[in-house]
Write a structure and sequence with these properties.
Helices cover about 30% and strands about 15% of the residues. It has 25 helices and 28 strands.
Amino acid sequence: MNTINQVARPGAARNLFSFNQVARPGAARNLFSYRKYWAHRFGTAPFLPMSRAEMDALGWNACDIILVTGDAYVDHPSFGMALIGRLLEAQGFRVGIISQPDWRSAADFRALGRPQLFFGVTAGNMDSMVNRYTAERKPRSDDAYTPNGEPNRRPDRAVVVYAQRCREAFPGAGVVIGSIEASLRRIAHYDYWSDKVRRSVLPDSKADLLIFGNAERAIVELAHRLAAGEAMAEIRDLRGTAFMVPHAWLPGGDWAEVDSTAVDTPGPLVRHPDPYAASPHDTQAGAACGGPPAGAEADHRAPRTQVVRTPLQWHQRMPRLDRARTVIRLPSYEQVAADPVLYAHASRTFHIESNPGNARALVQAHGERDVWLNPPPIPLSTPEIDGVFAAPFQRRPHPSYGAAKIPAFEMIRFSVNIMRGCFGGCTFCSITEHEGRIIQSRSEQSVLREIEEIRDKTPGFTGVISDLGGPTANMYRLACKDARIESACRRLSCVFPGICENLDTDHTPLRQLYRQARAVRGVKKVLISSGLRYDLAVRDPHYVRELVTHHVGGYLKIAPEHTEEGPLAHMMKPGMASYEQFRAMFEKFSKEAGKEQYLIPYFIAAHPGTTDEDMLNLALWLKRNGFRLDQVQTFLPTPMAIATAMYHTRRNPLHKVGRSSASVDSVRGSRQRRLHKAFLRYHEPDNWPLLREALKQMGRADLIGNGRKQLVPAFQPRGSAMLPRQAAKTPRRPAENAAGRLAAVAVGDGKR
C-alpha cells in the first residue's frame, strides 16, 4: 500500500484552495465582520417564525434558511437551533423554524415553503437515540425537549429521516446537517442500538454538507457564500465541515495523502511530526505538552494534582509535509466494520487529529465514494462568543405551545452558560468530540448582562440563579499558558494522567465572576449546578472556599465515576486521592461557613475496563462512606467516543493497538450489566438476590450477612424481588427503614 501520494488527481485543479489562512487559532475571519445580507431590512423577529402566518406578519415572502429540529422551539441560548437561528438573523438572513415535524410524510416540511439557500437539519440538543432509549435499549417514557415531556415526537436517527424528508419536500434544495447527532456520526461508527458499525451519516442522509462541532463559523460563512452565488458543491474549504467526494479525490495539485497506518500503525511507534520543531533535537514545542503523547504509558496511581513531566521519546519521523495540505486516509467503512483492530486504530487516529491548531483533514472510503472531513473549526474568541449570546432571545418557548411545560426549559431557564468546551477528555463523554478541548469563555460583562435579562424577562424569577457553568463548572478561562504549545499539543487530555504543567489552573477570574454575579441587583443566590472538576479545584483553595461559602445549595455534585485504578485509567479520570483532598477542603470550609452541606458523587456502572471485583470494591467503598445512590448511570456507548471503541473492539485506543494488544474487559451481557448496576445500589432489596449469587460465585460469601462490614443481608424482605429458586427457602423479614438514607441523586441512566 502506498502511504504517501502527492500525485494530483484528475480534475483536482478545478478546486484549488488552501487551509493556510485558517491553519492556526486566531486566524479565522471574525464572525461579525461580514456585510449583512439585504434581508436585514426586515428587522428582528419577536420569535423566529414557525408558520406562514408569522412569515406574512413579518413581510416575508420566503425564508432564506429553514432550520429543522427534533426539539420544541425555545428562544433561549441553551437551545442550539435558537442560538444558530438568531446568529443567522443577526447576519441579515430570514430564518424559519420547523420544530418536531411529523416525519411520516413530507407535508410538515413544506410548511414554510422552499428555503432560498438551504435547510439546516438537526436532531436537537441530544442525540435522538440517546434521547429515546435507555442504556438497556428500552424506550424512555418521556422526552425533556417536548411540550409536557411527551415521548415519541421524533424518529430514531432523526438527522437521516429529516434530511430525506426535506429532499422529498423540495427536490434540489440544499440540505445541511449538524448538531451533536451529526457530529458523532461523521465517520463510520459503532452503533450500540443496532450492535453494528454503521456508515457515516452523510451517505445515509444524502445531505450536501455536514457541519460538525460548534457550527457558528461554518454556517455563517456558508450562508454568505451561497447568498453571493457560489454553489454548495463547490464549497469545500470550510473548516468543521464534511462532505462526499469521488474516491481518491484531492483538492489541489500539491496536496498529499497519507495512509493512517503510517501515522499511527499497529506496531512500532511512529512519532507524529512536530510542525514547529526544526529537528528531533529541538524539543521545545513537542515537549511543551508537559506530559506523554497520546497513548504513552503512565502511573495512574499518582495523585491527580501531580504535575506530569514525561520526557518525549523520539522515533522515526514522517516525511516533512505541509500539514495544511495533507489528508489522512482512515481505513474504509468496510474495513472497520469487519476488523475490530482497524476500528480501534481509526478511532485513535481520529482523536489524535482533533486539535484545531495542527489537525489534518481526514478521508474515509464508503464504497466507491469518500467521506472527506476538513480540520475542526477555529474556536470563537471572547468577543465573538459574547456576540453570539447577545442576540435578542425571548428566553421562553414559542407562544404556539401555550401553557405546556417543556421540562428541559424548566431546568435551565434561570441558568447561564459561561463557557464551552472541555479539556478533561473523559473517554465516555461526547463533549470533547463535539465542542473540542479549547475552552471558549464569555466576558464578565456578557454573563452579567444575561443575568440581568433573566431578572427582567423570565417569569417566575425569585432571585436565584440556578447555575453559572457549562460542560464543567470550573474551566472558565483556563487554558494553556502558551498559544504555540497549545497549537502543537497532541494530548487527549490536559489533566490525565496528571495536570499538565503548561495548564493555567488559576481560578481567580471565576471567583471574580461569582462575586460580581452575587452583586447584581435582584439576585439573592447564585448556585453552581454544573459538574465540578475537583482535581482542578484543589489547585486553588481560595476558589473552593468561595464556592463552598456562597454557591452550594446544600449539595454539590462531583463525578469520581469510580474508585478503582483499572476503570479510572480507561475513563481517563483522576484517582481517589484528589477526591479525598477535595472532600477535606469541602468539609473544612463548610464548617467554617457554619453550613451543613454534602457532596454528591456520581459513578458509572459497566464501563469498559471494569471487572466484577472493581464494582464490588466500589460498593464496599460506598457502604463505608454511607452513600446510598438513588439513581445511577450505566455506561451507554455513544458513537465515536473512545470508551465506545473499547466496548466494541475490546482494545484500548489510548495506547497503540495491534493484533497482540491486551484485551479490555467489555461488560456486554445483560446479566453482567445488571450486576454492575446492582453493586451501585447494594442497599436495594430487589438487588440482593443477584448480589448474593454473584458474591458466592466470586468466592466472597463472607460479605453476605447482617454485620456492618457485610454488603448484603442473608434475608429477603417480603414483597421484594427474588430469584425463583430462592423464593421458597428465603426467610422474610421487614424491609429496611429508608428514613435514614442519604439520597445521592445522579444523572439519569445513560443521559450523560
